[in-house]
Structures are given as C-alpha cells and as structure tokens.
Amino acid sequence: MNSAARSLDGERATSAAPVPRRPRFGLLPRILVAIVLGILLGLVMPEAVARVFTTFNGLFSGFLGFLIPLIIVGLVTPAIGELGSGAGKMLAATAGIAYLSTVLCGMFALGLSLLLLPMMLNGESIGSLENPEDSAIAAYFEVEVPPVFDVMTALILSFCLGIGLTLVKRGALQESFEQLRTIIVRIIEAIIIPLLPIYIFGMFLGLTMNGQIWTVIGTFLAVILLVFAMTVVVLLGQYGVAGWAMGRNPFKMLWTMLPAYMTALGTSSSAATIPVTTECAKRNGIPDAIADFVVPLCATIHLAGSTLKITTFAVAIMIVTGMPLNVGALVGFVFMLGVVMIAAPGVPGGAIMAAAGVLSSILGFGEAAVGLMIAAYIAIDSFGTATNVTGDGAIAAVMTKLSKGRVSGDLEVAGETQLQGV
User: Fold this and answer.
1) Per-residue pLDDT tens digits for 208-256
2) Which positions, given as ranges, span the membrane (predicted)?
3) CATH number at residue 319
4) Residue 15 lies in a domain
5) How far apart are CA 249 and CA 66, in angstroms?
6) Is 16 part of a structural domain of the chain?
7) Which bin fits 211, alpha (ψ -120 to 50), beta or left (φ > 0)?
8) Which residues contact 317 (CB under 8 A, 6 or more apart)?
C-alpha cells in the first residue's frame, strides 16, 4: 500500500514537473539559413527536385495573393476605427505626428534612393523576375486562387468602413472587425510566417539556377549599407526636434534611449520593448502620463524605420529589374505606405506583409519581386524595429511640448482603455 502510494505520488510529482521549453529558432535565423541553402543547393540540385519547390512557391504565392486584400481589410479597418475614438485630441495629435514622421522618413529614403542607388548599383540588372521563359525550372502544376477583390478595392473599402466606425457607437460591427483582425494575425503567425523560409529557399534556389543570384546579393549589400546610414540620419533629425521640444541636449537624449534601441535590436519586437522604451523616455524628462500613453500607442502606429527600409529596397529592386521609376507613383506609394504601416501586425515580418498589397497595386511588383522584398526586409528587420522604437521617444518629447505641461484626465483614463485595444 505504501509503495503504491509512493508510486502514485511519484507520478503526480512527475506530471506536475514543469516541462522545459525548447529554445526557439527565430524567423531571422531561419530566413538566413534558407537563403544560404538556396544558394548552395542551387549549384547542385537536380532540376526535377527543384521543380518541387517551384511548385510550392507557385501555390504559396497564389494563397498570399488571395490573402493580401483580406489582410488589408482585416487590419486597416479596425485600426482606423480605433484611432478615431478614445483619448480625444491627444490621440489624434499623436497619430498625426506618427504618420507625419513615417511619411517624412519615407520621402527622405525615396529622394536619397533615387539620387544614390543608380550610381551605387552601377547599371546592375537581373532582368525581369516574372518572365517564365528565362527559367528552366517550371512548376509541375499550378492552381489559380483568385482574390475576393483586388487590392485597391480593399484599401478603399477599409477607409470607408474604418471612417464609418468612428461615426457610430461602438458595437457588434467594431467587435466583428477586431475578431477578423485576430483571425488574420493568426493566419499570418501560423501559416504565412512559418512557410516563408521554404518560399524564400525556393526563390533563391531558382535565382541561383538561373545565374541571377550574385547580382541580387551585390544589390542587397549595397542597399543595406545605405539603409544603415539613413537610419542614423533619421534618428539624429528626430532627436534634434526632440531636443528643441524639451530644451535638452539631443545627443544626450539619444544616448539615454540606447537601452531601448539595443533591446529592440535583440527582440525585433516593438511591443516587447515597450517597458524599456517607456523607462528611457521618462529618464529624458517625459512626464509619466505622456510616456505611458504615447510609447505604447507609437509602438503600434509609428513605423518610420520600416517605411524607410521598404521604400529603399523597393527602389533598388525596380532599378535592377528594369522597372520604370515613376516618381509620382513612388510618392503616392510612400503616402499610402504610411497608412498601411499604422495597421501592420506586431509579428516578425508583419510590416512587409501588410505592405505587399501596396507594392503590387501601386508599383506593379510581381510575386518574385515581393518575395525579394520579404527576404531583404526580414534580413535587417531588427534594425528597422530599433529605429522605430527609438523614434517613439522623440514623439513623446514633442507631445510633451504640445501638452504645455498639462495632462488631462481624458489622457489618463480613456487613453489607458484605448491602448488595450490597439
């Protein structure tokens, strides 16, 4: 009896013991491994095997094309609906400044890219990425998955519905769109993101077998150097304004934000960095109520670094693939990208997934070009995130200046409630 009891107690103890968590292999390492394997195996893989991955890429691209309009409606509509209510003027001012910062960074990146990239890339060209006759790796079969509606229809529909939600009392419709957003984010997390490394592997496999890979790698390295330089200039500009707003040394303010920058560099997550960013902002003299309101909100809607990266790589890909550089279309792309970034989901690679529809609808990017954008973006995702969260501290400083030292109860109560839904 005693032995049985001891045996039972042992089983309970074993079942109650915590199961050690396996270390996670992050998205960035998986993407890098996929790129390296795609290049190496592309030199030796038989065509019959390579066609399996070409077939997968065709199916994945079709599903992604089907999903993009739904991503726009599911993310943009509730985001606009939420930004139209809550903490009143403070919320509107913060959202407006975040959008202005995002667009200005995009325009800065666009201007510098158009000026420097043609010289930096020095006439490099990989031709059209969409011409199947240039590839000996044909898919075994294809499945057409037409989207429910096109991307531009999704954007206009999202704007109309989102603005409409701000004009009516919160109810079942707003909650339905929030549930739709949850479903879309789950699909991105559970299906799109896990399959991205396989898709990128297949893409780089094809580029290697077609002899285009070395031009692509050279292009990426040149553009990455330009992006790093631009993020430094952007942060210096943002904290020049922040220093003026707070009457402080901008370089000291930027140095104080270094822990937030380094945390974002390690986590690639604006949300995970919120506590550190908030604490750094308070050390820069930002009032607690403003820091507690602005930093979490901007972690969702202020993606200046991401916009800078996407704009620069988009111009680079257009140059090396021979696409026409229509300045008017590129300017419109930056302004629309600023809106889409507000609704980008807070998952690794979420910003580029949200931007995929705008890349295809405004700039005419095809499946392979979007795939290159995804690979390039994720390869330096953490640096864009670090730029985003560091800039959040600058926006908090500007909001401190605009509040003139007064913090309303509306900010403390309604703001806290609103942020829980963002």
Assistant:
1) 887 767 767 777 788 888 888 999 999 999 999 999 988 889 999 999 9
2) 31-53, 59-80, 92-117, 151-171, 183-207, 213-241, 253-274, 294-320, 327-346, 352-380
3) 1.10.3860
4) no
5) 50
6) no
7) left
8) 219, 323, 365, 369, 372, 373, 376
> Quick one: which of 89, 67, 265, 96 has its CA closest to 185?
67
The tens digit of pLDDT for each residue in 296-338 reads 778 778 888 889 989 998 998 888 888 888 899 999 999 988 8
**Cα atoms in the Cβ-side hemisphere of radius 13 Å centred on 134:** 12
Taking the CB of residue 176, how many other CB atoms lie within 10 A of it?
A: 12
Model confidence pLDDT, tens digit, residues 4-56: 444 444 444 444 444 444 556 666 688 788 888 988 998 888 988 988 998 99
CA–CA separation, 106 and 304 (whole Å): 7
Residue with tokens 């290049």: 39
- Give the helix/strand (H/E) hosting 143: none
Q: How many Å apart are CA 44 and CA 56, to the nearest integer?
A: 19
Q: List the domain range (segments joined by +) for residue 213.
A: 26-421
Separation between Cα atoms, residue 140 and residue 53, nearest integer Å: 10
Burial of 286 (0-12, 13-18, 19+ CB in 10 A): buried
Whether the Cβ atoms of residue 359 and residue 314 lie closer than 8 Å to each other: yes
State the pTM of this model: 0.69
Look-up: residue for tokens 């007064």?
406
Count of domains forming the chain? 1
The answer as to whether 139 is a domain residue is yes
Does a structural domain hold residue 6?
Answer: no
Residue 8: helix, strand or coil by DSSP? helix
Calculate the alpha carbon distances from 85 to 166, 170, 172, 179, 300 in Å: 6, 9, 16, 18, 16
- Token pair recorded at residue 354: 């949200």
Rounded to the nearest 10 degrees, what angle do helices 172-187 and 47-83 cross at?
160
What single string gives the DSSP state of each residue in 259-292?
A: HHHHHHHHH--TTTTHHHHHHHHHHTT--HHHHH
